Amino acid sequence: MRGIISAAGYVPYWRLDRAAIAAFHGGRGRGSRSVASFDEDTTTLAVEAGRLALAASPHPPSTLWFATAAPTYLEKTNATVVHAALRLDPSTLAVDAGGAVRSGIAALRNALHSADPATLVVTSDIRGGLANSPDESAGGDAGAAIVAGSGDAETLVAEYLGGASATREFLDRWRAPGDVRTKQWEERFGETQLVALGQKAWAAALANVGLDAASVDAVLVAGPHGRAVNSFLKKLGRPNAVTLGDTVGNTGTAEAALLLAAYLETAAPGQTVALIGLCDGADVLVFRTTEGVEARRPQRRIVDQIEAGNASLPYAKFLSWRGVMPINPPNRPEPARSSASAAGRSIDWKFGFVGSVDRSTGAVHMPPARVSFVGGAVDEMDPLPMAEATGTIVTFTVDRLAYSPSPPVIFAVVDFDGGGRLPVEVCDVTAEDITVGGRVEMTFRRLNTADGIANYFWKARPIRGAASSAANEEG
Amino acid sequence: MGSHGIRDRVAIIGMGCTPFKEHWDRGTDDLLVDAAGDTFASAGVSKGDIDAYWFGTAQSAMSGVPLAAALKLENKPVSRVENFCATGSEALRQACYAVASGAYDTAMAIGVEKVKDSGFQGLNAFPIPNDGTNRTLTAAAMFSLVLPAYAEKYGVDPDALRRTVARIASKNHANGAHNPRAQFRREMDVDAICAMPSVAGRLSVMDCAGVADGSAAAIVCRAEDSHRYTDKPLYVKALSFVAGNGSGVLDPSYDYTTFRECEAAARDAYAQAGITDPRRELAMAEVHDCFTPTELVLMEDLGFSARGEGWRDVEAGVFDLAGDLPVNPDGGLKSFGHPVRASGLRMLFEAWLQLRGEAPEDRRITTADRGLALTHNLGGYPGEMVSFVGIFGNALG
Question: Looking at the structure, do residues A231 and A135 belong to the same domain, yes or no?
Fold first, then answer.
């Protein structure tokens, strides 16, 4: 049978308290929204979600779909970066389903309908707009990843029962390439269109799977048109089974997969759940959770990541990160663009964070080397994947002189458990709360951008949430 | 096989050094003409008398042509040299070996850097195409890692240690205040330095070497020929150089309280020169005080202080101008600023003045009768650096 093999969400560390927006512009703000850090983009969010989903999946994917409405590159495929960071096999197809918010749930639908044994669908979005816009306040940043494919009740966490779609051309929300601001037609027009399409697809989906509405245990309705979503939920006569509006915000292209992943984190076996996307049409996917759903929870739950967030982000910093309010950079040369051919030679290191280990001495080399610094053996190394390794901060410093898109640079010497040392930048931390002896893990980030080239590499970040307590128990 | 050195086979017979400062009115050519001209005059020679040139620069010129063009040399070999911030010393080392080999009778080593034309503060490396994964931390931040490591290893109170390294800056500025060639000629007391805001770790701007334009040069010949040019040559006792393999940044056993490359270079230099007790045999040392913690660690790596005792010796004034072993009597990088590929020869210039009794009285060392000076020049970062150690004396044997 077809279904979900694993699902996971990645919610960035930073939160913007909506009261901070209101304090600046006036009005009131409820809850907070998630904020991708200055060194995160939709590709890095996708990588982080993909890492979590793959960790819970017994099958490597043969296809990778990456959907976002805020791609880092046009023309160039962004999914190949995700492919490299996740160290997928070269035979794995990696393609973007980019541009429109609807492409998120559509990529999931296509994966469920394909014959591939396992397809990784990664979706992500960074939601913003002009200062004081509804999207700035209601939006949220996140990645969500789902491995869809074939399996039995043990390998699947949810069986795909079927679904339906409804499409009609009408103008609701739109944004020209390069623009910050998404514009919207008169709200009521989109609402009537979307609700009507939703009802049509809902009825068709129930007919396709042979269920009546009452036997669906939970609904998850996603869509960037908040009013249409609420209106449709009223028609269904029930609330969303998962609500993230007050903690994460509306995550656009990632929202459908994020709601589904969050639902599956706590779902009991045998539950029927409908995932519904309302955006430029309507898409309904109906699932039933299996016995496997309890046994195979993701290692880091969305709820824990929400709990671990830091809402102290000043509104001004949020605006500067988004480029809405550019700030004066340090008077230092900006970084040069990274070399495509040099990066091409070091894919495993730069994107996959794979070092090397000397077979005879065990000396760990980051970056990988041909000659060992212990004993000098030549070409006697094995690749050593380090992306999932954890480590301890030996010493650190705060650099207020170095160029950074968001100074100061916080930098630490990290010794990894099981061997290896790397002096590396630390992210998702402030100069006040980093400590010697602090525990860190690795995360895929965009270091800078030069000549339009996003320079991706890995940074360390403090271990927080579920994995943190596990590490404490070990340590 | 072995490092045998060229003790007493080569002599320095002339030196020159421009003021180190923001030379807004002087280009690279001007600085080269000034430094070379002073050096020719010092040795009583003209450019045609010099058989070969070693030209150290990183950011101001490529190839030997710019020196040949600036000085209008006629059919002379000019080698451009680059070895991080130790380039000036490396140029000297090459010139000395060329003369020692018998290939040339005379050679000049000249270093220059015109750093103030970049439009940015600080030093700026020109980028070599790479995969984008290299560290982009400033040198200040990398060297700032030394302080907490040292404090922890030797049980020194971090606040007290912070004052100790401020004392190093204060000492060097006190020396530099008496040097007309130095860029910064104002004394700074420890409290004022400690009160400044941090820019990297606990280091403030006053813990960092400044940036300046400048040039310095030396002429060398075979020792036996030196008295044709001067009554007071300086003899080359040792020249050592280590290019670190970067293992310090990979090696979990490296603890940021020592610079292995400097320790190794010093060991080699002392063996070449036959020195067993540097603290008492040396009259003075010019060391690479790019940041104040660097000078602290160097006191131990160069064998002037026992491990973990350097901070006590700094506090006791051992390395003050009137101390047991004056360090950076000219004011060091702290006072001069750092035209990166000239600094090594600027250090040697102070040894030249002091050992010949030509340093002005207000910064003259009282230990000159020991007759030996050390220059130490490094480039790079803790764990990944090059290091030069040279020893020079005013007498044979």
Answer: yes
